[in-house]
Amino acid sequence: xxxxxxxxxxxxxxxxxxxxxxxxxxxxxxxxxxxxxxxxxxxxxxxxxxxxxxxxxxxxxxxxxxxxxxxxxxxxxxxxxxxxxxxxxxxxxxxxxxxxxxxxxxxxxxxxxxxxxxxxx
Length: 121
Hints:
It is built from two helices and five strands; from the N terminus they run αβαββββ. By secondary structure, the protein is α+β, with helices and mostly antiparallel strands. It has a three-stranded antiparallel beta sheet. The chain has a two-stranded antiparallel ribbon with strand order 3-4.
């Protein structure tokens, strides 16, 4: 996608599948390229595991096989406060299967004390 087209989107919501294949070099190259492209202009503001599939533990990291990512264009931020409670009160299960909560390793190890942004509507 050309940069100019990507910059036209204020909010991007993408559901990524097969995330448990991140340890596969070909899959990782594609995923890293996709995320690098999006993160040039947008910041990830929300993650939600889709409970249509379970998580898998690889090398001590719990990875949901399917996750929804919400990205917000960086030039729209004033400040933000990081979520500290998961699931977020607005999160809902995608299916009637067992609930799937965002694993701690996706948010607990981050140093959030020095950054504060706010997304404009």
